[in-house]
Write a structure and sequence with these properties.
Number of helices: 10
Helix content: 40-55%
CATH topology of the largest domain: Rossmann fold
Number of domains: 2
Shape: globular
Strand content: 5-15%
Structural class: alpha/beta
Number of strands: 5
Largest sheet: 5 strands, parallel
CATH superfamily of the largest domain: Response regulator
CATH architecture of the largest domain: 3-Layer(aba) Sandwich
Radius of gyration: 17 Å
Distance between the termini: 35 Å
Length: 209
């Protein structure tokens, strides 16, 4: 089996390869440090699963997921993220992900999730499964941030974590003008005026830890 690890941090890619390599004897791994590299690797060869970071420079992991599912609809993609699982997980699962894990998950949970994806199944943590079930049961009301695009939601979370426009631009490999435009859209859609309003909303709704 061949597993592609897509994350912009080399130490994370190597750590994931080490954990999965010890648990899955005979598996081979590829690495991609950016969205274009991941798509190129997928174009050139056959892969059985992809472990994809949500926060990637340039196109976000969620946008990249949509590209992957368009080109390779049968390929299982496990999303890995440092963000709280519920909201990003909902977006990832809607976009076709086979599973979602936060980066602070235990190694054995990562292995279990990858095995499930390799078997053609889907994986969510028990806590996420409970939250999703509660949403369905309660017919959860649409939150303000649900109207944001995936990129706008990502910008919201980065602003709420205390990062400046310049820092966000550097992290996402986007220009200051582009980030400022996204910030303005987020404020307008959520009927808010300042970054402090966004931070307060994100904290109150559990969008950041």
């Amino acid at each position: 089996m061949r597993i592609l690890i897509a994350d912009d941090h080399a130490v994370v890619r190597h750590g994931l390869t080490d954990i999965l390599g010890r648990a899955l004897p005979g598996a081979s791994f590829g690495e991609a440090g950016s969205g274009p590299q991941a798509l190129e690797s997928l174009r050139k060869g056959h892969w059985d699963a992809v472990v994809l970071d949500v926060t990637m420079p340039g196109r976000s992991g969620l946008e990249l997921l949509k590209d992957i599912k368009t080109a390779h609809p049968g390929l299982g993609v496990l999303m890995l993220s440092m963000h709280p699982e519920e909201e990003y997980a909902r977006r990832a699962l809607r976009a076709g992900a086979a599973g979602y894990l936060t980066k602070d998950s235990a190694s054995d949970e990562l292995v279990a999730a990858v095995r499930r994806v390799l078997d053609g199944g889907r994986y969510v943590s028990p806590s996420l499964a409970e939250a999703l079930a509660s949403d369905l049961q309660a017919g959860a009301a649409r939150a303000l941030h649900d109207q944001l695009t995936d990129r706008e939601y990502e910008i919201l979370c980065l602003i709420a974590s205390g990062k400046s426009v310049a820092q966000i631009g550097k992290e996402l490999s986007l220009g200051l003008k582009t980030i400022s435009t996204y910030r303005a859209r987020v404020l307008r859609k959520m009927n808010m005026r300042t970054d402090a309003d966004l931070i307060r909303y994100a904290v109150e709704n559990g969008l950041i830890t």
